[in-house]
Design a protein that fits this description.
251 residues, four-stranded antiparallel β-sheet, 9 helices, 10 strands
Length: 251
Amino acid sequence: MLQLTEVGRRTPGTRLRRLVTVSLPTRSIVAIVGPNGSGKSTIARMIAGLEPTESGQLSLVGGGPGAVSELLPAEPPWDRAKRGIFLLPADEPVFEDFTVEENLLAALAPFRLPPQTRRGILDGIRRRIPLTDARAGTKAGVLSGGEKRILGIARVVLLSEAAARARNGLSGPGYRLIVLDEPSRGLHEGAVASVANLLKHVAADGVAILILEQTQTLADLVADTIIHLADGEPDHAHSTATDDRKARGIA
């Protein structure tokens, strides 16, 4: 799993000074909630290798007894991607002139994978995300805002799985982390519910997910742990009990 320990960096307009230790184990969903300027996007960019950290550390920790911790060095995003760590920025566009299917194929293009492996990854996405199958021939530009966001998430899921398969071959996908910066921004309530349902299925498939949001709506629907960020520092954090989510009909 990826672990952040008091990671911080000052940037213009952002006062991110310290972050409590955050663990992102496989199949978990962690949410960081805070207003604009609180440091959420800075955290995302540091995890993805787009910005260096000025304090604290990021490390990959193995599972099981005697787990070994590997400190992540400063490295570019493509090296983080090789480790299975991917970021979907808030303003990440889909290719609007491409069909839904072409958007998915474009996500696989950088990887040299056997045709059978490529087909298996695509078939898995189609089963988990009905939009990618039902509207495969539809131009992405005519999709609704929520559908475009779901397509963007589908693309980053494909990227993470393809990179892991290219890295580990038939031994399995290994650790995968997807960081989503404001995945519910601008979406209506029904679209937020669709994104929430998708994220729960993705996590159940063995992916760790970190979402960064201005509001708590999506976090309440999916997160195992919610961290509130205010004025560049964690205000408070709490775990969301699965039984409580089930009681509210959202687990």
